[in-house]
Amino acid sequence: MLLMWTGFLGFVGILLALDLGIFNKTAHTPTVREALAFTAMTVALALGFAGFLYEAYDLHWQGLGLVRDAVDGQINSGRLATMKFLTGYIVEMSLSMDNVFVIALIFEHLKVPRTLQHRVLFWGILGALVMRGAMIGGGTALVARYHGVLYLFGAFLIYTAAKMLLAKEKEEAPEEAWIVGWLNRHFRVTREFQGKHFAVLANGRWCLTPLAVSLVLVETTDLVFAVDSIPAIFAITTDAFLVFTSNVFAILCLRSLYFGLAGLIEKFRYLKVSLAVILGIVGVKMLAARWLSPMLGESQNTVMLVIVAGILLAGAAASLIADRKRKNPA
Questions:
Q1: What is the rounded CA–CA span in Å between residue 93 and residue 43?
Q2: Count of C-beta atoms within a 10 Å radius of residue 44
Q3: Is residue 72 assigned to a domain?
Q4: What's the domain range around 69?
Q5: How many structural domains compose the chain?
Q6: Is the residue at 106 inside a domain?
């Protein structure tokens, strides 16, 4: 099992090295075409990895799939593991889209130059991998010891879904957030950006730059979103390897999704509704697992995948129709 973990982390390290060292060696603003091409590449890698999981779990390489999944009580075969990975990947991707829009607001309020945004997102991804890895490890251990925690996760997701649906639209400038105030109280922060640097030496003292402030806000935002997304994927599987790998592939798409979608925020007016419905359904599944599992059997993962994909497509279609009506009123 250790070989699988180190191999996967090494693979991710190579991807990040290629990203920063070759494709984005010099600071520039990725075009929408470049962003969508990189997104397509990461999706293709995720699908290829799903094929690898099919073989790895079917043959139980390095002990994969030998422990019963606490969600459905089954040994994860190649087909089951692949289905759970893809479902988790889509759920995490959909939740990451909302994160993309919040990051866009952070960059807008802090006036982060477009050429420097990639740098913030790159280091933000590294921080997100570490934070989510720790949360997934802790969550897996907690569920393994106390199965009832899954019901608490389910109730929390339903509460979050209701809160998202009922919350009024409100934009709060990130500069006014308490984390920014805390940074200004405890550190010296320059007023101007200092190129690509997060910290500079001024008058013999180290100072943070606005770029560092934006990085802290991006990391904080991901931590907040992870509180929703991690419990959501535990409704699909408690296999730590599947949970972590699906999260990682979703996070890898985050930067490219930002540059591909940030300019189209207003077109996705029903995204929050779609995400709230998904969280609500996932929460209900966790609470009703004892009854749903016998009814659906092995098809429950397929049903979940179809439902999540269907909700996202319906939300996107409704958003496009509403946008078209707004531009061309009858």
A1: 10
A2: 10
A3: yes
A4: 29-325
A5: 1
A6: yes
Asked if the structure places residue 16 within a domain, the reply is no
Which tokens belong to 23? 């494709």
Residue 307 belongs to some domain of the structure: yes
* pLDDT tier at 89, thresholds 50, 70, 90: very high
Q: Is the pTM of this model over 0.85?
A: no
196 - beta bridge partners?
none
CA distance 236 to 62: 22
Is-contact 194 209, C-beta < 8 A?
yes
Structure tokens given for 271: 């995204």
Task: Give the tens place of pLDDT for each residue, 212-253.
Answer: 999 998 888 888 778 877 888 888 899 999 999 999 998 887
Cα–Cα distance between 268 and 290 in angstroms, integer?
35
pLDDT digits (tens, 9 = 90+) for 140-157: 888 878 878 888 888 988
As given in the structure block, the two tokens for residue 3 are 């070989």
Contacts of 94 (CB under 8 A, 6+ apart): 274, 275, 278, 308, 312
- Name the region of 203 (left: φ>0; alpha: ψ -120 to 50; beta: rest): left
SS (H, E, C) the chain: CHHHHHHHHHHHHHHHHHHHHHHCCCCCCCCHHHHHHHHHHHHHHHHHHHHHHHHHHHCCHHHCCCCCCCCCCCCCCHHHHHHHHHHHHHHHHHHHHHHHHHHHHHHHHHCCCHHHHHHHHHHHHHHHHHHHHHHHHHHHHHHHHCCCHHHHHHHHHHHHHHHHHHCCCCCCCHHHCHHHHHHHHHCCECCCCCCCCCEEEECCEEEECHHHHHHHHHHHHHHHHHHHHHHHHCCCCCCHHHHHHHHHHHHHHHHHHHHHHHHHHHHCCCHHHHHHHHHHHHHHHHHCHHHHHHHHHHHHHHHHHHHHHHHHHHHHHHHHHHHHHHHCCC
Give the number of other Cβ atoms within 10 Å of residue 12's Cβ.
Answer: 18
Please list, in sequence order, all residues whose beta carbon lies within 8 angstroms of the beta carbon of residue 318, skipping any fewer than 6 positions away: 270
